[in-house]
Amino acid sequence: MAALRALTEQLQADSVPREVVSAVVGICHFARAWGVAPDGMLRGNGLIDDEDAARLEEWIWTISYALSMILDGDAAEAFAEYDHERLW
User: What is the pLDDT of residue 83?
Assistant: First the structure.
C-alpha cells in the first residue's frame, strides 16, 4: 500500500507505467491462486489455514481495489478504508 501511495501520481498520468500495473496485478493474481484457492499451492499442501487465507484474501481485495481507484483518478477513495482500518 505504501508503494501504491508513492506511485499514485504516476498511475494517474496520461501514460501509465505498464510494468507497475502488471506487477500489482500479478501480485494479486498469484497470491489468490497460491494462497486463497482451495487447490492452490499453500492451501493444497496445508501450509496456510482458513483464517490466514481469509486474511490474505482481504489484503488482495484491498490492494486490487486501491489500484482500480487510483487508475480511475480517486486516490482518496483508494486509501480510505485502508487508512481507517490502520487507525484501529
Answer: 84
User: Total domain count for the chain?
Assistant: 1
CB 11 within 8 A of CB 21: yes
Tens of pLDDT, residue by residue over 32-47, are 999 999 999 999 999 9
Residue 74 in any domain: the answer is yes
Query: What gap in Å lies between CA 58 and CA 53, rounded to an integer?
Result: 9
Give the residue from 25, 28, 26, 87 showing the smallest Cα distance to 57: 28
The C-alpha cell at 39 is 487447490
End-to-end alpha carbon distance in the chain = 17
Helices (H), the chain: 2-11, 18-31, 41-44, 50-71, 75-87
